[in-house]
Amino acid sequence: xxxxxxxxxxxxxCHVVSIPMRVRFRGIEHREAVLFEGPSGWGEFAxxxxxxxxESARWLAAGIESAYAAEPARVRDVVSVNATVPAVAAESxxxxxxxxxxxxxxxxxxxxxxxxxxxxxxxxxxxREAMGPHGxxxxxxxxxxxxxxxxxxxxxxxxxxxEYAEQPCATVEELAELRACLARRGxxxxxxxxxxxxxxxxxxxxxxxxxxxxxxxxxxxLGGVAAALEIVEASGLPAVVSSxxxxxxxxxxxxxxxxxxxxxxxxxxxxxxxxxxxxxxxPPMAPVAGVLRPARPDPSVRRLAALAPSPGRQAWxxxxxxxxxxxxxxxxxxx
Length: 335
Hints:
By secondary structure, the protein is of the alpha/beta class. The protein has helices at 7-13, 53-68, 93-97, 117-131, 147-157, 172-185, 195-198, 205-208, 219-222, 225-235, 248-260, 301-306, 311-330, and strands spanning 15-25, 28-38, 41-45, 79-80, 83-85, 105-109, 136-140, 162-166, 191-193, 214-217, 239-241, 291-292. The chain has 13 helices and twelve strands. The model has no long low-confidence stretch (mean pLDDT 95).
């Protein structure tokens, strides 16, 4: 990574925002983030609340890269995007999909706490009906199943023509066991690894243990575009780019990552600003005709002010940002 910018300068100029969600997603009703500007544009720091300082430092490295590093060389100027369906009731699926202009792929959340497999089946069935026979559907369990539950669920859900199942089980070992189990049972579905890449001490164990058919990479939790590209190359597996529930500033970094991948055979999960009731950029980085294009969006001064949380919450995030800076220095970044 390039040299870390001045800590106090970033802290003094950063903006904290709290964006309401249209529906509860990943247990979140408001998405909080810190935005700051550098010579190359804007960066974003928004690690989820449960992440410690070591993980959060990678998110800061990604934000610094966006704000201070040169633009990476592109392979493509258009990135296909999937729609994202939260764990809503089946009758709400059509309305959710309508927010994603022209998207022909849908990612459907499953394995939500407090819900049953029947809810997942109904939701996926509703997505298939809405998308039609030629639309692509993938599911995301966020590691919510054990191996046996995952095998049983996938045996039912594959009836709706799944492109792949993202992180059906929590650990790399479970993913490897699940792939073997699915093969024995004749259940034909690809497995994608997400948390096993972005939250792993060694993301390359996924390929070493043959635990997935493809990987999901996210710029922010992996430390930025350059770091994510290194992981994709080292893994040797096909990759799809997704967001970490970013504002349009973070989405733009994800689009830059997708635009630099040597090959990209799947629509990317970068349309998630459609899950927000507001955004820092006007207009937001939302797909048009199912695609996004690389850009460097500037947050609206008016939106930054309108979305600012309480002074106490702003102080909490500035303290967290400072700790992430300290962690980067301790890790030797920029030397």
